[in-house]
Every structure is written in structure tokens, then in C-alpha cells.
Amino acid sequence: MTTSTAATPAVRKPIAWRRVALHAGCLAALLVMLYPLAWLLATSVKPADEVIASLNLLPGSLEWSNYTTALEGVNEVSVWQLLGNSLFIAGGAVIGNVLSCSLAAYAFARLRFRFRGPLFAFMIATIMLPHHAVLIPQYIIFNQLGMVNTYWPLILPKFLATEAFFVFLIVQFMRGLPRELEEAARIDGAGPFRSFFSVIMPLTRPALITTAIFTFIWTWNDFFTQLIYLFSPEKFTLTLALRQFVDASSQSAFGPMFAMSVIALLPIVLFFLAFQRFLVEGMANSGIKG
């Protein structure tokens, strides 16, 4: 008994040190990942001469006027209007992707029709198609329809299930749902649309919220597509305003530009924090795991 008791701490000691080393490594990685965010927050309150000249993380003096200048906006357009434009585009994209991709996924996952397999494979193949390869044909179409310099080119494609990645994500989630639920709804007289909206869609909430989070982040951070279709300053988003902010002044106002970057980052952080638990649940139960 004595030998066994004395040997127990010696066996557990390497395990404890291993855990400490693992936690220390994770903490170091976390600090490395959070450093750009800390640098952005610190630079947003630095004076103009310290942004480029100083390598210190903490500012020598706080310049809160950077945020005052950033709130004034660019090209006589306030930051609140820019924020509203960004929220309108991102919100429309989220609604379009969630609705259209879930409907397309329901057809591929639960309905039986001819050429379902080849069509699904063709849709998956479009994931490998670069966005820039279809940008010019899309621009020509929207230009002929008179939709250039409007928000339609940025929102309308989302209602057509053009995001194959999200369709695949939801398809894999729906395939794990029991078919008995739909059969019971069919016995009660429900058709495909009623079964989708009343039975399947509530059960796929984690996958739908995952789709909403990624759509919101990708649309909010999109710069190239918005630059192609939007010309009028009053229709600019915060992403476009960040570029115009430097060009609009006679000197490079880096402090206010970083202050506006912090303002543009806040909605993404709040949106992610509000739905992060659903994101983890959706990724764990979707086809990402194979």
C-alpha cells in the first residue's frame, strides 16, 4: 500500500506539467492572435506623428479627436449613413442566403427528382470557381438591367442560392434529421413547403445561424464587389469609406482612419458574440466533419 501511494504523485506530475505547458502555449498563441486587434485599438487613439514614427504599442498621449473626425464621415456623408448602408446590404444578404440556400438544400437532401446527383455535383463544383471569373458577366447583366450603382447586384444574387458552400453545409445537416418527422407531417396533410417551414427549418437552426454569421461577416468585409458596383458617395459602405477616408484629405489621416476601422469592426464582433454558441453547434453537426 505504501509503495502504491508514494508512486501516485510521481505518475501524475508529468501529466500536470504537460497541462501547464499546453495552457501556456495556448495563451501565447492567443496573445499573438489578439495583438493586431490591440494594435488597432491603440493606434486609433494615437496622435498622427506617433502612428508611423513610433513602434510602441501604447500611445504617448490619447488623441480622442480621431473618433470625432471619423464620426464626421467622408465626402459629406456621415458615418451613421455609411453604417446604415452596410447594415442594409449585409442584412439583405443574410436573409437571401438563409432562405434560398435552405430551400435548395432541402430539395437536394429530402426530395427525389431526376438528375439530383449530377446537379448536386455540379453545384459543388462551382465552389472551385473563382469569384473574379464570373464578375465581368454578372456586371454586364446588371448593367443591361440598369442596376449598377444600386444595391441590387449585392443582394439579389443571394436570393438565388448562388453560395454553394452554404447549400452543402445545410444539406449535410438535413441528412442527419430523421425522415419520420416528415412522414408524420405528410400523414397530417402537409406538403413539401409546409414540411420545410414547419418541421425541417426549425430543426436546422444551428446550420442556418452558421450561414447567417459567415454571410454577414463576408458581406460586411467585402470591398472589391462593392467597389465595382457602387459609385455614389451617399451609397458607400463603411468598407469603401475607409479607402476614401485617406484619399479625401490632403494628408494621410491615419488616426481617424483607424478609428473608423474600430467602428466598422464593432458590428461584426457583436454579431459574432450574439450567435457564437450556435456557430459551434452548427459546425459540429454539419457535413464539415465528413
UniProtKB/TrEMBL annotation:
Entry-linked InterPro entries: MetI-like, MetI-like_sf
Subcellular location, principal: membrane
Membrane topology term: Multi-pass membrane protein
Domain annotation ABC transmembrane type-1: ranges: 83-275
Name recorded for this polypeptide: Carbohydrate ABC transporter permease
Location of this chain's protein in the cell: Cell membrane
Pfam families: BPD_transp_1
Family: Belongs to the binding-protein-dependent transport system permease family.
Naturally occurring in which organism (per UniProt): Streptomyces ureilyticus
Keywords: Cell membrane, Membrane, Transmembrane, Transmembrane helix, Transport
Keyword DNA repair: no
The keyword Translocase is annotated on this UniProt entry: no
TM stretches of this protein: 20-42, 87-108, 120-142, 154-174, 195-220, 253-275
